Amino acid sequence: MQLRPRRRPVLLLAVVGLAAGLLLAAALSTPRVSSVLPADASRDIPGKASLRVSFNQPMNRASVESRLAIDPRPAGEIRWEGNDLVFQPSEPWPAGGHIQSGVLAGALSARGLPMLGDVTWAFDVGQPRILYLWPADGPAELYARTLQAEEASRLTFTSGVLDYSLTADGSAAVYSASGIAGSVEIRQRDLSSADDQLLYACPQGITCRAPVLSPDGRWLAFEAHEEDPGAQVAGTALIRVQVLPLEGEAQAVLAAPADHPTSKPAWSSNGWLTYYDHALMAFGFLVAPDSAEQTADLYVPNALGDRGDWSPDGEAFVVPEMVFVPEAPAAEDRPPVFYSHLYRVDVRSGAVLDLSGEGGFLVEDTGPSFSPDGLWLAFSRKYLDRSRWTLGRQIWRMRTDGLAPEPLTDEPSLNHSALAWSPDGQYLVYMVFDQTDMTRPAEVWWMAVDGSSTGQLAVGAYSPQWSP
Question: What pTM value is reported for the model?
């Protein structure tokens, strides 16, 4: 008997295999969310942390943005970084709030394929925290606490933190710290996840200080301190601002000519870098760092060289300046009277405005700090005329055009400095030092701007900043 070939089962298997392959191919080509930040069920998220949604393939951006759900949703902007959608809030998430977020079904890939289901997640926002360094009389570490907490939390465990700053969104601290055998590292610590990563290992013999990260996270600026071989006094430090691109294998470059000592790097919200040039006695402003020994795009003369502050929109820089006023002839030979005013620099035009009053107004104004909404300046003031002179500087505030100045403290023997605003603009944190007792350590305090409350945070601490 002759057997017929068994073709139907083979054909059936082929059809089934083809269908399975097509289904697998369709599943693999379907767009989907591969990860989210903050992760689902995250807690104590900083108030201005960005929300990031990563996709497995290029997406139709308009369709994704129209299906992005955030509740409650603060004001903010959406940007794309490759296949990642990033929502950056321009105002903090509600403190202590529960945020529901998601991407709804129907968001399309760049090839027109839809997401087949909703992807949702949620996270909890923490309370704003005050960061500071402690102790002032020994190797310091970085600490944080809220106004509601009774104790602070230690954030770093090093051989001594030298300086720190916060990233633009306040979600991480960038700090320089002593390492093994006298080495210094610049590191970044995420304030929600506690992840700590090395950004830059400073070369042997160089101490890196004052690290600041650009708003887009692409550039790290810092002071490089090294012994000056040309100095007449041994051990004199040569300080120069360097800028390190964090992408690729590029090396750190000088922000100014090599023979110009520079210090106090600071970034604006729109990416300008400013620093103080000691050779020129001027602040230099760079639109975009890109090569060694650069020339600033704008120079603003300044004899004092104290630290200033950028406006939230990045369009203005306020800095104190010292002015000498010759006195009338007197019987004895006396030095000229000097004062310091706050000057507002428009970085687009270079125009400078005296915010402290008309010429001859004898005050020492210093330490400017913009409120988060850009409407107010907090600063420290000391009168220099005999009738109103005080031992310590007091906290004042005024409108950013110099109008409506008013004192917030009246403690003549105490010096108030290092002012920083809370994210909602309702509180200030600051340092206090008793000028009548030089043996007492500095203290960190907070106060409500409306004067309704105040309190002590730490004794022997310094460099307070507020993380949303």
Answer: 0.84
